[in-house]
Specification:
Blueprint: H1 2-17, H2 19-42
């Protein structure tokens, strides 16, 4: 029940903010895609999974 109320409030807040804010958010979200791809391609692959602090764990 709480999740349904939270989703309804979120939709209401987004729609209430106006189309300009929605489009600006969509453009910024789309602009982040190439940055994410650039950063993930730039990172060297070690061939092993690291733990939360950069060590195996």
């Amino acid at each position: 029940m709480i999740a349904v109320l939270a989703a309804a409030y979120s939709i209401w807040a987004v729609v209430g903010s106006g189309w300009t804010v929605i489009w600006q958010g969509a453009v910024l979200l789309a602009a982040g895609g190439p940055v994410y791809l650039w950063l993930t391609r730039r990172r060297p692959r070690s061939g092993r999974a690291d733990g939360p602090m950069g060590t195996e764990g």
